[in-house]
Write a structure and sequence with these properties.
The radius of gyration is 24 Å and the shape is globular. It has a two-stranded antiparallel sheet with strand order 1-2. 31% of the residues are buried. The chain starts with a helix and ends with a helix. The longest helix has 39 residues. It has 14 helices and two strands. Helix 4 crosses helix 7, helix 4 packs antiparallel against helix 10 and helix 6 crosses helix 7. The protein is mainly α.
Length: 313
């Protein structure tokens, strides 16, 4: 039922946008270079089935989905599935690395802040991360781009790898891809880290009030042992929830950052699809996000009992 509702919204929402995908022929950088004639518009609408009534289009869309056919992109004139498969690895690299880094750093810093609650280190971390995480993702990305790419020239300005370059081996290719990904990953990591820090800190402060923590302290265990063996494990449940939900929403979180760095991931592809009102491509990416969210929730449900056996009981 959830999937059907989302698929239905996925079909009707793009068509609710004002405008017509065949009104103007767009060039590079979204520049309008020509206008379709009425005959051309009628031809393309008939070619892609957009001249039929919405119920018939909806039925055709559902039938195509049952055959695992996401349709043909109106703008790129290519199968939607091939476009998604081409861009998906770049987004997975970008967002996957940022989620792992932000979760790890947020968990560690949240644990340190919880252990030293009310002291200067807790106050400093709390204030710094809250301020930094409130900076919009695109603004932070622009600041990093101007400083480290345009001014210092430490990293490339845009793209995911250097075009028309012959690499000496796999290692050189990997280094080039990593250099292009550093600034986007840092941008997403910083934006996500504040929320993860707050969640981890609050969860660990709650765990610190438990009797078994006082027992561990009375036994003379070190703070590091208490943090790693007792606090983190018992405070992982809300952190795991945030982690898997972040995996599910990987496209939406990367749209602005990928746009700033012209990074060829799904977020940048979604922006292009919306600008040119490419209905099949928008539907395909939204459907992928839906499946990712549902899978992330399913995996989280399977992992919860491992983290807290009381849930499984």
């Amino acid at each position: 039922m959830v999937i059907w509702v989302i698929v239905t919204l996925n079909f009707f929402l793009p068509r609710a946008m004002p405008g017509d995908p065949f009104l103007l022929l767009s060039g590079e950088n979204d520049e309008e270079i020509a206008q379709f004639s009425d005959e051309q518009r009628a031809y393309y609408r008939e070619l892609y089935g957009l001249d039929k009534p919405l119920p018939i289009q909806y039925g055709s869309y559902l039938f195509s989905l049952m055959r695992l056919d996401l349709g043909q992109s109106l703008y790129f004139n290519a199968p939607v599935s091939s476009l998604i498969v081409e861009r998906l690895p770049w987004s997975l690299l970008l967002v996957g690395a940022s989620i792992i880094l932000s979760t790890t750093l947020g968990l560690l810093l949240g644990g340190v802040a919880a252990l030293f609650r009310g002291r200067w280190i807790d106050t400093s971390l709390y204030f710094s991360l809250i301020v930094i995480s409130e900076i919009p993702a695109f603004l932070l990305a622009l600041m990093l781009l101007f400083l480290f790419s345009a001014t210092l020239e430490w990293f490339p300005l845009s793209g995911a790898m250097t075009h028309f370059m012959e690499f000496d081996g796999v290692g050189a290719r990997f280094i080039d891809i990593a250099r292009h990904a550093v600034l986007p990953v840092i941008s997403l990591t910083i934006v996500r880290m504040g929320g993860m820090f707050l969640l981890a800190r609050n969860s660990m402060i709650r765990v610190l009030s438990k009797d078994y923590i006082r027992t561990a302290e009375a036994k003379g265990l070190s703070r590091v042992r208490i943090l790693t063996a007792h606090i983190m494990r018992n405070a992982m449940l809300p952190v795991a929830t945030r982690f898997f939900l972040s995996l599910g929403g990987f496209v939406g979180g990367a749209i602005l950052v990928e746009t700033v760095f012209s990074y060829p991931g799904l977020g940048y592809l979604m922006r292009e699809a919306v600008l040119v009102q490419d209905y099949p491509l928008i539907q395909g990416i939204f459907l992928l996000v839906t499946v990712a969210v549902l899978l992330a929730n399913f995996v989280a449900d399977q992992i919860y009992p491992k983290l807290d056996p009381r849930i499984g009981g």
